[in-house]
Design goal:
It is a single chain. It is built from five helices and six strands. By secondary structure, the protein is an alpha/beta fold. The chain has a single domain, classed as Phosphoglycerate mutase-like (Rossmann fold, 3-Layer(aba) Sandwich). Helix 2 links the parallel strand 2 and strand 3.
Length: 162
């Protein structure tokens, strides 16, 4: 069965200069958390075959650091739509995945990520802090991806991994 992981970018830095929100870098804590998640995903035997990330600097950096720490060999693709898009954008991206990809990670932003997790688990408020990662098993194919076809396997928060 296909596996979808949703990872929120690591903690961003507010102290360094940046021209626009899209260019905001990661803080040291965000760098550490990205690596922690990458290692945990690999230790769980869930190395992604594809990572798709928002084009924002903090999300792309998170994806690259997680991949490096977890020794992932998969491609990392950027998608501008994940920067400002909502839940429907995420669902559209997932439904467009190739059937040859069994494990995918999307890296993006709140509030979209917490809203997407809430949608997929049937509602409720979901706190999804920076670098949190949710793993869903998909009952069926990517093109038929829907809330009633997924099961949340786990949700990790980097502060608990220390």
């Amino acid at each position: 069965m296909p596996v979808l992981m949703l990872m929120r970018h690591g903690k961003s830095c507010w102290d360094e200069p940046w021209d626009c929100d899209h260019d905001r870098p990661l803080a040291k804590r965000g760098v550490r958390a990205a690596g922690q998640v990458g290692r945990i995903v690999s230790e769980a035997g869930l190395e992604p075959q594809l990572v798709i990330t928002s084009s924002a600097v903090r999300a792309l950096t998170t994806a690259r650091l997680a991949s490096e720490a977890g020794s992932w060999s998969c491609p990392i693709e950027t998608m501008d739509e994940l920067y400002g898009g909502g839940v429907e954008t995420v669902l559209t991206v997932v439904r467009g995945l190739s059937s040859s990809v069994e494990r995918t990670m999307l890296v993006g932003h709140n509030p979209t990520w917490s809203e997407t997790v809430s949608t997929l688990i049937g509602g409720g408020a979901v706190r999804f802090p920076t670098a949190a990662t949710a793993c869903f098993v998909v009952n069926g194919t990517w093109d038929r991806f829907a809330a009633e076809r997924v099961e949340l396997q786990w949700l990790i928060v980097p502060r608990l991994l220390v």
